Amino acid sequence: MIEAIKAAIDKNELPPMEPAAMCYMLSKQGYLSDSVGHWHPHLMFFVSQIDPVAWGAGQAGSPIYAFNDTWEHMVVFLVPVRQWSDGTADQ
Description:
single chain, mainly beta, about 10% helix, globular
């Protein structure tokens, strides 16, 4: 199924992702990966292929991070916020 979906994306048989796809990652129990572990509370925005610089990601002084998910043909923007879901400050 994964290969069929990837092929359909590659052939433009599926429409691009609609704007405004996002999620909240505000729980202290969140776990980013084995190499990173817990990270800051943050919002994630999912956008069809776009240059991350268009959002200021990775620029000097910018709080926005991004990574290009080539497997799913999208860019994921991460915007850290100052508080966890329980209201305590991120440190």
